[in-house]
Amino acid sequence: MQVIQSIKELEKFRSSFGKHEQLGLVPTMGALHAGHISLVEKARQNTDQAMVSIFVNPLQFNDSKDFDKYPKQTEQDLKLLEKAGCDIVFVPDAKEVYKEQPLVSFQFGYLEHLMEGYYRPGHFNGVAIVVSKLLNIIKPHKAYFGEKDLQQLRVIQYLVRDLSMDVEIIPVPTVRESDGLAMSSRNMRLTADQRQRAVVLHQSLMKAKALLGKMPHAGIEQLIKKDLSSEKLEYFSIVQKMSLEKCSNPLQDKEVALCIAAFIDEIRLIDNIIVSS
Ligand code: AMP
User: Fold this and answer.
1) Does the beta carbon of 25 sit less than 6 angstroms from any atom of ligand 1?
2) Could you report the per-residue pLDDT of 92-108, keeping only the tens digit for each?
3) How many CB atoms lie within 10 A of CB 68?
């Protein structure tokens, strides 16, 4: 496994890359778990070489404390990636990625006003800047993103569509712990007690799923909000799977996404499930 730290080295690697070979990219912020590895496995299955980038992007943190506390364990990550059969890892530092403070900014229309867009102002701008940079520097044929961050996945799909970027975005289903908790680097910060409480996100999604079609969406949302009164719920929304807009007419929306964000004390977790009727 080749480890690359500078853009110069990366460009050298890219220019020597076989003309008829396919390169798959998995962008991550490190602190890797089985969810990330499932993206690597998918990249290995349908491209010739799988590259993982590890970069904790300061620009996408709207809360500086969250950035400071974000878990970092590069040595362990590299071992995991080697074991997973990853071919190349790109691990730049912040000075390498942001030689200058970016002047450009992104705005994702209505997506800025709902769910993550509403609660994390500026977050998707930071995501779009770093992902654009990675796609431009690495020029992968395919890039892999988890459905765990469903709104981020949609933002990337619009970014690539609207700027006519020559890359295929491949969504990958969420990997969960045995009790249903969605795997996340932030789970590493949970104490044993918090870890037990965190499963409430998944339980709420399952409860809401069971109620779909039996009562109006607004009623289900109210019920879940009441259930979660002991945790700090930011949103629980039943939305159209693709647009992520609220769906008022369940009969018209064959595929919905149930999306949730809540704090377990100071640790913010998100999750979602997609339901087809
Ligand atoms: P992160 O390092 O959290 O920025 O995540 C890097 C990529 O891994 C993103 O595309 C995430 O959506 C994806 N990812 C994170 N957690 C999971 C999971 N539990 N299952 C599948 N993909 C995930």
Assistant:
1) no
2) 999 999 999 999 999 99
3) 8
Domain with CATH 3.30.1300.10 in the chain: 185-276
| Ligand 1 atom at minimum distance from 152 CA | 12
Residue written as token pair 């995501």: 127
* 37 Cα–ligand 1 center, Å: 9
Domain 185-276 belongs in CATH node 3.30.1300.10? yes
Question: How confident is the model over 177-193, as pLDDT tens digits?
Answer: 999 999 999 999 999 99
Query: How much distance in Å is there from the Cα of 35 to the middle of ligand 1?
Result: 6
CATH 3.40.50.620 residue window(s) in the chain? 2-172
Query: pTM higher than 0.90, yes or no?
Result: yes
Decide: 28 in ligand 1 pocket, CB within 6 A: yes
Fold of the CATH domain 2-172: Rossmann fold (3.40.50)
135: Cβ–Cβ under 8 A, 6 or more apart, which residues?
25, 143, 160, 165, 167
208 Cα: distance to centroid of ligand 1 (angstroms): 23
Comparing CA positions, the residue from 61, 41, 42, 52 lying closest to residue 186 is 61
> Quick check: 30 and 74 in contact, CB under 8 A?
yes
